[in-house]
Design brief:
single chain, Aldehyde Dehydrogenase, Chain A, domain 1, Aldehyde Dehydrogenase, Chain A, domain 2, binds nicotinamide-adenine-dinucleotide
Length: 470
């Protein structure tokens, strides 16, 4: 009896699934819960993204650009909702800065203008190198910038003629699903297909593995910590790895110390230190060390932690196994201090202290407004210390100095994808600095700040002995 009931139940489920798939095929949609691009099954998500890509790849660049304009517009319309949702779901970051990050992403992420052609013409004809789509890209996104990464990846990938399937961090699935639905609505409003960006209702390591192994996914893009970057690089497929950082900011005696203090705290506290490019520790030469600390404390809302509070913070924010306590990542300084029994003033922005480079709150990438400051005797020792602290991630580093030779030496020694001189770290994202933004900085695989062209393959097209009209 029990077995029969189980079989009936299975048959019923099978019939329902077949009906659902047939209806989805008829309507060319399959979104779960009425959400566009959201599926219960990863294979389904990939199949639908594939169908959408068949349409996108034959679109004119102008048609792709219309979809991208609609994504920009809808992001700006929904900016506050998405920012709030991200903070509420993940418990990380702050709404005000997330609004700024989304506006930046919507307005400045490069679109089809980034898809360019190289040409050689001469006696033997004309050769073009064009940027063609890969197809359906598999993207893995972090909890720290969930919707920002989905929007900026989608704009770039669609500009390149691709569609995309996301496997987001489970802690940010609600925000991601909302964003993916919005992106597909934008496409439909602009006359494009549904499912240009897809995902699953319940992202897990299993759905990630299905995506990584799927024969119809030619390119993987991972934005996250070292584990996920290693996973995509081990997949046997082409992979772009945007991994972890631990950016040091070096301050020497030639810098404008008051400005350096302001820039560093503005960069470090932006979205509660979640961006991977944000200042995670400071290296200061002895001659200006005390002056810098004074500016931090007196003008920039910093709380100087005693050794006792540092020890309590270590025990609170780092687990005995050396991992980060997720309940502390992306929290503001006042909340972190409350966790260790300190009732700090409401306007406290950052926790500072002096420590050795090996101090756990300095050597570890924390993603919290806790800024250890390492005292070094001179610039040379400062460079060595900063190289050590960056741990070979080659991600981001910052410097405050007026000496061009020193800036050059530092840049060569650190060898990072991003180096900001005399400004807050977010200037690297085109926020108070020149250049375009991205939330996928391919430090480990070397593409640097990704954009539409990163998500294309180079194709050479040769016409012999014709079309040269010189
Ligand atoms: P995380 O590494 O915990 O997770 C990132 C994503 O990878 C999530 O979707 C997660 O589910 C997935 N994941 C983790 N391990 C995996 C594995 N072995 N196989 C498959 N998927 C796996 O990181 P997070 O906390 O979400 O984000 C913070 C980290 O990401 C920090 O280290 C930060 O520096 C880095 N980050 C880098 C960039 C960049 O552009 N380089 C941007 C944002 C965040």
């Amino acid at each position: 009896m029990i077995q029969k009931a189980g079989t009936d139940d299975m048959n019923e489920k099978l019939v329902q699934e077949i009906v659902r798939r047939v209806m989805a095929d008829i309507n060319d949609e399959g979104g779960a819960d009425g959400m566009h691009g959201v599926f219960s099954d990863m294979n389904d998500a990939i199949e639908h993204a594939l169908k959408a890509q068949e349409k996108v790849r034959v679109m004119t660049l102008d048609q792709r650009e219309k979809i991208i304009s609609a994504i920009r517009r809808k992001t700006n319309e929904n900016v506050e909702t998405i920012a709030r949702m991200g903070v509420e779901e993940t418990g990380m970051g702050n709404v005000g800065d997330k609004i700024l990050k989304h506006k930046l992403t919507a307005d400045k992420t490069p679109g089809t203008e980034d898809i360019t052609t190289t040409a050689w013409s001469g006696d033997r004809g004309l050769t073009l190198v064009e940027m063609g789509p890969f197809g359906v890209i598999g993207a893995i996104t972090p909890a720290t910038n969930p919707s920002e990464t989905v929007i900026c990846n989608s704009i770039g990938m669609i500009a390149g003629g691709n569609t995309v399937v996301f496997n987001p961090h489970p802690n940010a699935k609600k925000t991601t699903i909302y964003t993916i639905n919005m992106i597909n609505e934008a496409s439909l409003e602009a006359g494009g297909p549904d499912n240009i960006a897809c995902t699953v209702q319940e992202p897990t390591m299993e759905t990630s593995a299905i995506m990584m192994k799927h024969p119809k996914i030619p390119l993987l893009v991972a934005t996250g910590g070292p584990g996920v970057v290693t996973a995509v690089l081990s997949s046997g497929k082409r992979a772009i790895g945007a991994g972890a950082g631990n950016p040091p900011a070096l301050v020497d005696e030639t810098a404008d110390i008051e400005k350096a203090a302001r820039d560093i705290i503005n960069g470090c506290t932006f979205d509660n230190n979640l961006p991977c490019i944000a200042e995670k520790e400071v290296v200061a030469v002895d001659a200006i060390f005390d002056e810098l600390m004074r500016h931090f404390e007196e003008e920039n809302g910093c709380y100087r932690a005693s050794r006792e509070i540092q020890d309590k913070l270590i025990a609170t924010v780092i687990t005995p196994k050396g991992a980060l306590n997720r309940k502390c990542v992306g929290r503001d300084a006042k909340t972190l201090l409350k966790m260790v029994g300190v009732d700090a003033p409401a306007d406290t922005r950052c926790i500072i202290f002096e420590g050795e480079k090996e101090h756990p709150l300095i050597a570890t990438e924390l993603m919290m407004p806790i800024l250890g400051v390492v005292r070094v005797k001179d610039f040379r020792e400062g460079v060595e210390t900063a190289v050590w602290l960056e741990h070979g991630n080659r991600h981001s580093a910052h410097i405050h100095s007026k000496n061009v030779d020193r800036i050059t030496e530092y840049a060569r020694a650190l060898d990072t994808a991003i180096l900001v001189k005399n400004g807050p770290s977010y200037a690297a994202l085109g926020f108070g600095g020149e250049g375009y933004p991205t939330f996928t900085i391919a430090s480990r695989t070397g593409e640097g700040l990704t954009s539409a062209s990163t998500f294309t393959k180079r194709r050479r097209c040769v016409m012999t002995d014709s079309l040269c009209i010189r």
